[in-house]
Design goal:
With 185 residues, this protein is an alpha+beta fold. It is built from 8 helices and 5 strands, in the order H-E-E-H-H-H-H-H-H-E-E-E-H. It has a single domain, classed as Beta-Lactamase (2-Layer Sandwich), CATH 3.30.450. The protein is 50% helix and 17% strand. The protein has a 5-stranded antiparallel β-sheet with strand order 2-1-5-4-3. Helix 3 (48-54) crosses helix 5. The relative contact order is 0.16.
């Protein structure tokens, strides 16, 4: 990934932004995206599809879980058609097939989905409900990578929730830095 792409993502301070690959791994994210999707980032690599279909907390984070899950499966369906020999993609599909009844059912429906924009509802454990708009932009010259940015209209409850989330994330980072400093002394 080009350093300029990382600078763009990191430069968005008031909007959650991340880079996603064709397997829905998140190789780069700004602090606000890490706060919004904190539970996703507990796994390595962070993968939104794996989280949505295998982690029971996903149904709380995404009030519209079924739509989010269908969209994720549809994205994988498109990607496997584009890259049928991608071993990591095949491994992810195999893992989801063996571990998730919902995935098997949705995969069997053969739905495809390419999303570039939309609205997604979240129920974040620290800040509660918020409805955010998102845009996903393919990165020219970076095969299979896209940037996703979430936002909210100014003056809306979602905008207030994003500000609260940014404050919560900053306090989490301060606490982590203080804890790190304590262990070094």
């Amino acid at each position: 990934m080009r350093p300029s792409v990382l600078r763009i993502v990191e430069g968005l301070h008031d909007q959650p932004a991340y880079v996603r690959n064709n397997r829905m791994d998140i190789p780069a994210a700004n602090p606000l995206a890490r706060a919004l999707l904190s539970e996703v980032f507990e796994q390595e690599p962070a993968n939104t599809c794996r989280f949505v279909l295998l982690d029971p907390r996903a149904t709380r984070l995404y009030p519209d879980w079924e739509r989010v899950a269908r969209d994720a499966v549809g994205v994988l369906r498109v990607e496997v058609a584009k890259n049928p020999y991608d071993r990591e993609l095949s491994n992810l599909i195999g893992e989801l097939s063996t571990r998730s009844d919902a995935f098997r059912t949705m995969w069997g429906a053969h739905d495809v989905h390419v999303f570039t924009e939309g609205t997604k509802r979240f129920h974040h454990p620290a800040v509660g409900e918020m409805e955010l708009v998102h845009e996903s932009l393919d990165l020219p010259g970076e095969q299979g990578l896209s940037i996703t940015v979430y936002g909210a209209d100014p003056g809306t409850p979602a905008a207030d929730a994003l500000k609260l989330l940014a404050s919560w994330a900053a306090s989490q980072n301060r606490d982590a830095a203080a804890s790190q400093a304590d262990t070094e002394h």
